[in-house]
Amino acid sequence: MPHSQDILINWTPQETRVAIIESGAVQELHVERTLERGLVGNIYVGKVVRVLPGMQSAFIDIGLERAAFLHVADLHREDGSPRPHSRSTEVQVPIEKRLHEGQSLMVQVIKDPIGTKGARLSSQISVAGRLLVFLPQDEHLGISQKIGSPELREQLRERMTRLISEADAAEGRTRSSGFILRTNAEDATDAELALDIAYLRKTWATVRELGLKSPAGSLLYQELNLAQRVLRDLVGEQVQSIRIDSLAQHDALKAFGAEFTPTSIDKLAHYKGERPIFDLYHIDTEIERALARRVDLKSGGYLIVDQTEALTTIDVNTGGYVGARNFDETIFKTNLEAAQAIARQLRLRNLGGIIIIDFIDMQREDHRENVLSELRKQLARDRTKLTVSGFSQLGLVEMTRKRTRESLAHMLCEPCPTCTGRGEVKTARTVCYNILREILREARQFSPKEFRVVASAAVVEMLLDEESAHLAGLSDFIGKPVSLQTEPSMSPEQYDIVLL
Fold first, then answer.
1. Which CATH number fits domain 428-499: 3.10.150.10, 3.40.1260.20, 3.30.300.30, 3.30.1360.70?
2. pLDDT by residue (tens digit) across 373-397?
3. Model's pTM, two decimal places?
């Protein structure tokens, strides 16, 4: 039976933050910043401002600063046949025979504007739900390539065909529409799929109706914001309450829920407390911890989490353990606690891709099996698709977790300008020796009156103190004075050698 959850939503004009609380602890964090929301997925009424036969493209005004771009391959095919792959080699009807200046058409953004380039558009509309993608102009039924075996794909196809037929019959439809099953539909029940079908059709009916009466340049549909996605994607039987600290957003969310996710609105409440909503469970402290490299365990052990371009490594250490009495048992208990903490950290930090876990070495096979079993049990609560292999020959556990969005660290942080993401900087002594070598190199090519070293306070201090004898010796050897100048704005590794 799933643990009961509470959802807290902290809303400000610039940012929405969502925390999922389970057993009094934060399990997931979601952040969305208003200025970083893209346009991809938005649907507009566009107006053709220019057709370019030579490029088989058109510029479309959708009310943005720059006209957007539509290629012939992204035009909806009126014959209802499956949409071709982009840049398909099959013969296309020329764009000048399909579009003319001043014409209005419904378009969807498929690529955000970048630099001087306008947004990229398609007139082949799709609307994404939690489990399905709706294709209102097609009758195509597709299944994500990542969904396992051919047998499972065929079962899902049969179930979807039946559910669509039932929905068509209930609504008196004569022509059906298309759907693509997303990866997370693999384990969905008929009831969940039917709910997504109804939600997507209702959304499309609203968009179509709005499109008939709106002028060119109007926004008809915007990808759901984070608070709306909470109601659509995260609210299940396990959720007890959803609290939001903005009255205006609470009312807007209630109106959205009443129309599209009626089962969720009874759980929605406006938080009126004097304390900030995230202070209830010390969530800001949890965010700081989720950005730290080290995670302390109650037993005295700790985890070290390192995120790289290719993979994430998690190293388990005994830390506070001292003494050798029943050493195996101590290691086993630390690893068990680490397995629970790792599953939570993956959700909290939203780590995706390849993950390598280095548990403390265990001699006993039953201990290894129990730790792996505990890890799998804790990971079963994760809504994101993942796979876990056993211990490798090197004693490492390898796993993968699907990337659904940017990790928390990538969203809230950027590489350090001092170490450029290495996580380390050269010591002051190393920089001093680099400077001494550089002065010697310059003295062989040039003959100034004086060499001036401009560097950070720590480097200048070391040259004046511990390395003063080496500096004086170099000055005598090259026959030129060397002066020092502190520059507070310089990082520990930066320095300049000025020839005077």
1. 3.40.1260.20
2. 999 999 988 878 889 988 888 889 9
3. 0.74
